[in-house]
Every structure is written in structure tokens, then in C-alpha cells.
């Protein structure tokens, strides 16, 4: 746990909105059933070079499918045939919960380590019957292009607002220079 905490804490300083990693974070996550066993780790020369956890939040937060429209409604049975052989995530029937996990603490030392980390996350997700993963990154994050290629997923774009009270200081230039990496699991 100390090695993983050190790795996550060191890389958290490279981004805005990344959580701190310390004993208090582990204690807070433990209250939600998350521990270091939920993390997949990529190693090179016995050192951690990539890590992330899957947090199945269906017990506290759910996405319920209300229905499908247009082509997707007609294609759903075919998509689920591909899903049955592991070529696509399944599309649940209307009224059912989407098997979605939030990716927590996703960190790599170098861009090239995204591929093995994402493969390990997908394997872990399949073993837990989780077909869908979510991760958040800012549009200007230098790792975003690599993550797009590796994950091959859908993007949901939103805005992040800077809200402050009058007289509150603005962000420093150092703060602006760092990419945004909010933890979707903690939102």
C-alpha cells in the first residue's frame, strides 16, 4: 500500500483536481468498499509505472436505461450478440442498470503505459461483469490523445466553471499550467 500511495501521491501533483493520496484517502475510500485490491498496477523493472482502480458505484449511483431510439433501438440485439463474444459492451434492456464503473486514480508515468494499464482495467472490468468505464480528463490534458486511442470510447463534453466569492484570489499561473484531471468517481 505504501508503494502505491507514494506513486499516486507523486503523480497527483501533476494535475489540478486530482485527489491527495494518503492514509486519510484510503480510510475514506474504505468506507465505500474500495481498497488497494481494487487497483490494477503496471510494473516495469519492479517499479509501479501505472495504476488505476475500478469503482463499481451501482450501490450508490446508478445509470438506468430508460430506452433506446432510432438505429440504436434496432441495432441493440446485434450489439449484444457482439457483446456475448467479448467484442463490445452489452446494452442493457430498458429499465435495467448500466454496468458502469468509474476509473479511480488513473495514473501513468509515461504515455506508452496507458495501453497496458487500459488492457488490465478492461480485463478486471470483464471479470466483474462491468461493461462500461468512465474517466475524466480536461480537453487540454497532454495525455488525452493517447487515452482516446487506447480506450476507444465515447466522449461526453462538459464545462468546468471557476466560481468564487468576491475578494477571493484567482488561481496562480502555476495552477493554470497544470491539466485538469477531476476524479469522476468522486464527483
Range of strand content: 5-15%
Strand arrangement across the biggest beta sheet:
1-2-3-4
Which overall shape is indicated by the principal axes computed on the Cα atoms?
globular
Figure out the total of helices.
6
Number of strands: 4
Structural class: alpha+beta
What is the radius of gyration computed over CA atoms, rounded to a whole number of angstroms?
Answer: 18 Å
Q: Round the mean pLDDT to the nearest integer and report it.
A: 89
Task: Please trace the helix and strand order, writing H or E for each element.
Answer: HHEEHEHEHH
Helix share, percent: 25-40%
End-to-end separation in angstroms reads: 24 Å
Largest sheet: 4 strands, mixed
| Uncertain residue segments | none
Would you spell out the secondary-structure blueprint of this structure?
Blueprint: H1 2-12, H2 23-30, E1 39-44, E2 47-56, H3 70-84, E3 100-108, H4 114-127, E4 132-134, H5 144-151, H6 173-177
Parallel strand pairs: 3-4
Antiparallel strand pairs: 1-2, 2-3
How would you summarize this macromolecular structure in one to three sentences?
By secondary structure, the chain is an alpha+beta fold. It has helices spanning about 1-10, 25-30, 70-85, 115-125, 145-150, 175, and strands at about 40-45, 45-55, 100-110, 130-135. The chain has a four-stranded mixed sheet with strand order 1-2-3-4.
Can you describe this structure?
With 187 residues, this protein is an alpha+beta fold. The chain has helices at residues 2-12, 23-30, 70-84, 114-127, 144-151, 173-177; strands at 39-44, 47-56, 100-108, 132-134. It has a four-stranded mixed β-sheet with strand order 1-2-3-4. α4 links the parallel β3 (100-108) and β4 (132-134). The longest helix is centred in the middle third of the chain and has 15 residues, at 70-84. It is globular, with a radius of gyration of 18 Å. The mean pLDDT is 89.
Amino acid at each position: 500500500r505504501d508503494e502505491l500511495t507514494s506513486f499516486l501521491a507523486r503523480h497527483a501533483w501533476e494535475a489540478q483536481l486530482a485527489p491527495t493520496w494518503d492514509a486519510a484517502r484510503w480510510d475514506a475510500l474504505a468506507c465505500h468498499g474500495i481498497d488497494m485490491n481494487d487497483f490494477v498496477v503496471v510494473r516495469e523493472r519492479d517499479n509501479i509505472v501505472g495504476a488505476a482502480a475500478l469503482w463499481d458505484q451501482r450501490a450508490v449511483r446508478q445509470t438506468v436505461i430508460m430506452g433506446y431510439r432510432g438505429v440504436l433501438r434496432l441495432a441493440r440485439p446485434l450489439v449484444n450478440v457482439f457483446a456475448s463474444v467479448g467484442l463490445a459492451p452489452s446494452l442493457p434492456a430498458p429499465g435495467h442498470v448500466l454496468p458502469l464503473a468509474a476509473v479511480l486514480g488513473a495514473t501513468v508515468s509515461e504515455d506508452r503505459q496507458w495501453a497496458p494499464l487500459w488492457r488490465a482495467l478492461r480485463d478486471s472490468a470483464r471479470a466483474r461483469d462491468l461493461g462500461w468505464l468512465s474517466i475524466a480528463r480536461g480537453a487540454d490534458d497532454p495525455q488525452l490523445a493517447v487515452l482516446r486511442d487506447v480506450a476507444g470510447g465515447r466522449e461526453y463534453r462538459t464545462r468546468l466553471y471557476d466560481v468564487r466569492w468576491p475578494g477571493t484570489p484567482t488561481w496562480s499561473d502555476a495552477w493554470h499550467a497544470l491539466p485538469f484531471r477531476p476524479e469522476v468517481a468522486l464527483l
